[in-house]
Amino acid sequence: MVVRPLNLADGELVQRAKRGDVGAYEQIVERYREPVFRVAYLVTRSTADAEEAAQDAFVKAYRALGRFRDDAPLRPWLMRIAVNESRNRVRSAGRREALGLRAAAERPPDDSDQSPEAALLAAEERRDLLDAIERLRDDDRLALACRYFLGLSDREAAQVLGWRQGTFKSRLSRALGRLRMELREEVTP
Amino acid sequence: MSELERRLGAIGGELAYPPTPDIAATVSERVRAPRRLPARRTLAIALALLLLSAATAFAAAPAFRHSVLDFLGLRSVQVERVPRLPKLPPGAAGGDLGLGTHTTLAAARARAGFPLLVPGSPALDEIYIARAPAGRRITLAYAPSRDLPRAPETHAGMLITEFRGSAPREFLQKILGPGTTARSVTVNGDPGVWIAGRPHQVLYRGPDGQVYSDTLRLATNTLLWRHGDVVVRIEAKVPLATALRVASSMR
């Protein structure tokens, strides 16, 4: 039986995986499967496609480990491969009905001090916001999703989407502007 | 941060993603397995194999055979049959790479269905013979040395493979991945190709009849040319000039 130390740093796991330690790579997959699957889902809007894209991304990443610098950030690199895989799937599938984004809770928890009316209003606002995001074009939606839904920094989001950081910032700014238009919100300086 | 950005951040934490599937086991299974080619390519290669294995049947109509293979971009596809997955690292130079049966130079010359070319130098270390493709395939293996560094893909210093076939240019351009370059060269006056850069794939047909792209058996820098109807392939982690020097010493 092989006793594998847990919680190794990414760089150590990458080095081991490069030497052919598939168990070490399995730990990498375990560590990053959630952000990789979620970004794939945000692109494909299909649970099945996202799962396949995430799997393929990890397999491709394994085969490309030789080109990966041990000290480079692993998460955005894996997510970028997943975005590319997902885009390929969407492109080959053509236009189709995608699942809409939905908030998990339509109502706040019971212990909230919001009145029922306020809670209903908040839920409606969330739905309006998500619906408005749905109406944006793909690049705008992805820029917003990477920055705000996945909580990536500008630098990480740019890497994940394969854009320069400056390009990401300007696209994000334009996406926010178009979202405000969708929401018919006054653009304030 | 604007009010809109604050709302977006808040909603991000509440999004209803589908549960993240547990893909770790499937991924590790896939990276351990030999790479299967995409279905369409597998089908095309299987068809080419069928045509090649029935070469005698097509001998009466060579133009038809060539046109079909050209259409597939797989003319003179080289498929290595191995009884089982190659294991690395090998013991003797080139051993256990699925190169065939160990033999002697005299026996190989006698059994090859074509005139075998052997470099004047370096001295030959091992020689292997395989039954396929038709006319047999001979592989000369050289241990790593100062002039022939160990290739991580083959653990040998140099492998030279010879078999009967035709120009593989169309096929190679299809199978090479990014990071690998292929350029046309002239070898001893014959047309050839120099493949360099990242390791490229070697195809083989497994015991189940499927065509696999082997992740273990990756080829290093390769000089490939046709001399008459014999295809000669030199695999070594050396620059083109060195490969050409070896090629020019082959008699």
What does this structure look like?
The complex is a heterodimer of chains A (189) and B (251). Chain A has 189 residues and is mainly α. Chain A contains 8 helices and no strands. The model of chain A is unreliable at 1-5 and 105-112 (pLDDT under 50). By secondary structure, chain B is an alpha+beta fold. In chain B, 29% of the residues lie in helices and 27% in strands. Chain B has an 8-stranded antiparallel sheet, with helices on both faces. A 4-stranded mixed sheet of chain B has the order 1-10-9-2, covered by helices on one side. In chain B, a hairpin with a 2-residue loop joins β7 and β8 (190-197). The radius of gyration of chain B is 22 Å and the shape is elongated. Residues 36-95, 166-175 and 203-217 of chain B have low confidence and may be disordered. Classes of the chains: A mainly alpha (189), B alpha+beta (251). The A-B interface holds A 22-23, 25-26, 29-30, 33-34, 37-38, 41, 47, 50-51, 54-55, 58-59, 62-63, 67, 101-105, 125-126, 129-130, 144, 147-151, 176, 179-180, 183, 185, 188 and B 2, 4-5, 7-9, 11-12, 14-18, 20-28, 30-32, 179, 215.
As a percent range, the share of strand residues of chain B is 25-35%
Termini separation of chain A:
62 Å
- How are helices and strands ordered from N to C of chain B? HHEHHHEEHEEEHEEEEEEH
So what's the oligomer here?
Answer: heterodimer
Tell me the distance between the termini of chain B.
76 Å
Number of strands of chain B: 12
Q: What is the SS-derived class of chain A?
A: mainly alpha
Sheet with the most strands, sense and barrel status of chain A: none
Order of helices and strands of chain A: HHHHHHHH
Q: What is the percent of helical residues of chain B? A: 25-40%
What is the helix tally of chain B?
8
Give the number of DSSP strands of chain A: 0
Q: Structural class of the helices, strands and pairings of chain B?
A: alpha+beta
Mean pLDDT figure of chain B? 65
Rg of chain A, rounded, reads 19 Å
Low-pLDDT parts of chain B are 36-95, 166-175, 203-217
